[in-house]
Amino acid sequence: MQEKKKALMKLDDSFTVGEVDDRLFGSFIEHLGRAIYGGIYEPDHPQTDERGFRRDVIDLVKELQVPIIRYPGGNFVSGYDWEDGVGPREERPQKLDLAWRSVEPNSFGTNEFLDWLKEVDSSPMMAVNLGTRGIDAARNFVEYCNHEGGSYWSNMRKEHGYEQPHDIKTWCLGNEMDGPWQTGHKPAEDYGKLALQAGKAMKQVDPSIELVVCGSSNRQMPTFPEWEKTVLDHTYEFVDYISLHQYLGNQEDDLTNYLAQTEGVNDFIETVIAVCDYIKAKKDSSKEIHLSFDEWNVWFHSHEADQNQEPWQIAPPILEDVYTFEDALVVGLFLITLLKHADRVKIACLAQLVNVIAPIMTENGGACWKQTIYYPFAHASRYGRGTVLQTEINAPDYETEDYGSVSLVDGVAVREEQGITIFAVNRDQEDDLNFECRINNVSQIEVQEHLVLEHEDIKARNTKEKPDNVTPHNKGNAKVKEGKITAELPSLSWNVIRLTTD
């Protein structure tokens, strides 16, 4: 009888990577498709409150415990006039959104978004338009949102019913400005100069804000990483974060390669860190730039359907990926990769939150439900806050077309106040693995829970008709034996092992 494959995780409570910023479990809402209209905002829905917010969606978002949400884009922001989304609804203009070839009614804007954030216990990450607009619009937007009063824009906010400042702390200097698809796309040199001047003006209005400058739209961009080098050369001393965006997908239906795509994400992060540190050394600066991975997810299912949509609709059903169980595993692997870099990746936004490449789906006028990817994100958000421990895993490798030899098991451990949580994915498509974890400098270990997300059908989905088709269970068999944690990791599974320690 063939011996079962084994994976060994080694931890030491004294050796850490860094503290997890709660904002690592952020998300994103854009004026795109049904993310807002029919998603979080639907005045005619039977479960809508007096402001038009869907209460059923609010409940699911609150379960995710999302600490920060990016808004209003995305590609949308590069053609957006923020003034169109404030003030009396009846006076707001209806406009063409060139990014998604849709019609934007502007029924929902900045103040509605900030009101909604209070309902879901989250905070804003606001983006300014550096595509078709620039310094003036950006500084005025900060004044409208954050200045106490006594000026044109802050007084306007008060006239709109908001006496107190919104006090928005995190601001994005545009979106994906390296992308030729972006309205107002600019070369790195031009964008770097504009971002510097806009950021300086914004901080003159409110010196307490943090700024996120645009990095590359994905690792495959032909200008990566030269873009980062040029932009940071201009902005290093005035910004706090540089952004990364990356979407993964299984277009070739090659599961072996798909489950290894986060190896590329790891390389992406480490390259951007290297560029940041190069500019730090070049400028002889004492400042350290952190990373904001403010767009990430799986996105490929909806591409063909989106090509058949008629343009110039209000809230068309676009980018509505229906996720499979294998997508949930990849999202889990992405979360593990982000946690491994918690010392430098301080903000991350799952894109997006509702309907548009999202963990939550809704039916206009009807139900809402959790997609497969909801569960690993919810687990990481609930149990992944604390201090990431340095993690060494010894496990068998498997061969991939694009990433060479890749470990069958990827995982990370996070020290929380009451214990340690281990997140692990078994990439093996056939075999369960015997998992063992040894933790130095920790005693009195007990297994509190072993959550497992698994399914016999790798293409299984959650739908309105079968919303609980793919759900986690807590029947994992992790236990403590002779001071070591042992468990069986089922083939193709996401595992959360929660330990209490002394």
Could you characterize what this model shows?
The strands form six sheets. The chain has an eight-stranded parallel β-barrel with strand order 3-4-7-8-9-10-11-12, surrounded by six helices. A six-stranded antiparallel sheet has the order 2-15-19-20-25-22, covered by helices on one side. The protein has helices spanning 55-64, 110-119, 135-146, 152-159, 188-205, 226-235, 255-258, 262-282, 303-306, 325-340, 374-383; strands at residues 6-12, 16-19, 26-28, 68-71, 95-97, 102-104, 123-128, 170-173, 210-213, 241-248, 290-298, 345-351, 360-362, 368-370, 387-389, 392-394, 397-400, 404-407, 409-415, 419-426, 433-440, 446-453, 479-481, 484-489, 493-500. The chain is of the alpha/beta class. Strand 8, helix 5 (188-205) and strand 9 (210-213) form a beta-alpha-beta unit. It folds into two domains: 6-13 and 390-500, Golgi alpha-mannosidase II (Immunoglobulin-like), CATH 2.60.40; 21-383, Alpha-Beta Barrel (TIM Barrel).
